[in-house]
Amino acid sequence: MKTFAAIDVGSFELSMKIFELSSRKGMREIDHIRHHIDLGTDTYADGKIARKRVDELCHYLNEYTQIMKSYRVEDYKAYGTSAIRETENTVIILDQIRQRTGINVEVLSNSEQRFLDYKSIAFKGGAFNKFIERGTAIVDIGGGSIQLSLFDRDMLMATQNLRLGVLRLREILHHLNAGRAGYESLIEEMANSQLAVFKKLYLKDKQINNLIIVDDYISALFGKRLFAEHVGEQTDIKSFSECMGRICERTPQELTRFLDMTEDSIELLEISYFLLKKIIQIMDVELLWAPGVTLCDGIAYEYAQKNRIILPEHDFDQDIVACARNISRRYMGSRKRGETLEQIALTVFDSMRKVHGMGKRERLLLRMAAILHDCGKYVSMVNLGECSYSIIRATEIIGLSHVEREIVASVVKYNHLDFEYFDTAGRPSAIDRDSYLKVAKLTAILRIANGLDRSHKHKFRDVKAVLRDNELLITVATNEDITLEKGLFHGRAGFFEEVYSVRPVIKQKRTL
C-alpha cells in the first residue's frame, strides 16, 4: 500500500486528490481538496499571472503540504496546465512556488495534459472499453482550449486541439460587453470556423455515435444525477438537451441556489454547454457520458502504471502509434514502406539493447520516426528532411511531450540530411545533451533500416540481426538482386559505426 497525492494547478481551480495505491486493490481515492483560484483570467488577458494570484496559490499549496503530511503521503506529483504554460514568466513563477512551498510543479504540454485526462477515463476500465466499441469522440474542455479525440473500434484515430477553452471564451465575451442572452450566438460564431475545419478533415467518412465529456461544469451536473438515475450513467442526447434547456431558462441567482455553484461557475457552465451543443450538432451523436474524472485521476493512474503498481487494461502506446499512422496517411505517406522500415528498425534496436542502453519509450519514438519518415514529401520531394521536420514539430501527437516530438522530428530530419553535432549553431533549444544522444542513436538505426530498403521494393521478407563482438550481422532472406542495397549501405553504415563502434554487415540468405 502506498499513499500518493496528485495536484492539479489548473486555470480556474487548484485541486489535490489523495490516493491509496496497491497492486491488490488498485487505486482508492481517500480525499479530494479543491480551491477556486482564477489563474487563467490573468494569463489569457494579460499574459502574466498577477502577484496576488501567486501569493494566493502559494498560500493554498502550503496548506496542501500540511494535508499531505497528515496523510503521511509517500510521494506526489504536481502539474500546471495552460494558465501556467502560457504565461510569459513561467520559469519565475515555478521557482517562486518551489522556494515558498517546497512543491515542485512541472508544466504539462497540451498533448501530455490531454493524454492524462484520457488515461483517467480509461481507468474506468470495462465501462470505457465498452463505450468506445462504437464510433466515439472525447471532448475535453479546459480553460484555455478544448481537445477533440476520435475513436474507431476502440482505437484512437485522431486528436486535435482548438483554442476554444471556457475561460478564454469568457474573456472575449467580457471584452465584447456581451449580455447573457447573446452568449450562445457569439460562441457559435467563434467556434464555427474551427469546428468546420475539424469536420472537413476528420468527420467526412466517420460515424460518431457516442460522446464522452470531460470538464469541470457539465460533469458536475452528471454528478448531481440531473440526467440519469445513477451517477456515472450515460444519457441520450435528447434528454440531456431538454434538461439543459430548462436550466438555461433560469436566472444565474436561481441556478446558484439550485445547483449549489458560484455565479462564476454558472457562467462557465453555460459557456461549456453552448460549446458542447455546437459539437453535438456537427457530430450528430446519440449518447453522452460524463465519467466525472479529473486530471488528478490521470496523474495517479500514470504514476501507478510507471511504478508497476497497476497494470493497464488499455494499450496506450498503440493509441500513440495509431495517431502517427493517421498523420502519415494525411500527408500521403507510404504505409507499406513505413511498415517495412518499422520492422527492420525495431529488429536492429532489439538486437542492440546491450549497446545503446535505451528502453521501451525510445523504442516507441523509433516506431514513430519510421512511420513518419516521409511525411514531408507532401510538401517537397527535394527538401524532404526539412519539410518532414517542420510537419512533425507543428503537429500535436497526443501522449508525446514537446521534447519527445522534437526527438522524433530530428530523427526523421537526419535520416535524410547530414547529422548536425551538439555544438552546432542553430540546434533546437528543446534538445539537451541527453536528448541529443537519443537522436543520434535512433537516427543511426533508422538510417540502417532505410539503407536496407533503398529501392523501396520491400525485397526482404525476413530480417534478423545478431550482435557479435564489434559487428552487427544483419541477415536478409531474399532471392532478389540486392546490389543497390549493398552498394549504398556503406554510406548509411558509417554513421552507425561512429555512434555505436559496431560495424553493420549485410548477409544475404537465399530462400527456396
What does this structure look like?
This protein has 512 residues and is α/β, with parallel strands linked by helices. 52% of the residues lie in helices and 18% in strands. It has helices at 39-46, 51-70, 82-85, 90-101, 110-122, 126-131, 166-175, 183-203, 218-223, 237-248, 252-259, 263-283, 295-306, 316-330, 335-351, 353-356, 360-371, 384-394, 402-416, 433-452, 483-500, and strands at 2-9, 13-22, 26-36, 75-80, 105-107, 136-141, 146-152, 155-162, 210-214, 235-236, 287-289, 462-468, 471-477, 503-509. A 6-stranded mixed beta sheet has the order 8-7-6-9-11-10, with helices on both faces. A hairpin with a 2-residue loop joins strand 12 and strand 13. The chain is globular, with a radius of gyration of 25 Å. It starts with a strand and ends with a strand. The model has no long low-confidence stretch (mean pLDDT 89).
**Which residues sit in consecutive blocks of at least 5 with pLDDT less than 50?**
none
Radius of gyration: 25 Å
Portion in helices: 40-55%
Fraction in beta strands: 15-25%
Distance between the termini: 58 Å
What is the count of β-strands? Answer: 14
Mind summarizing the main beta sheet?
A: 6 strands, mixed
Shape: globular
Strand sequence of the main sheet, in spatial order?
8-7-6-9-11-10
- The secondary-structure class comes to alpha/beta
Helical region count? 21
Q: How confident overall, as mean pLDDT?
A: 89
Determine the oligomeric state from the structure.
single chain
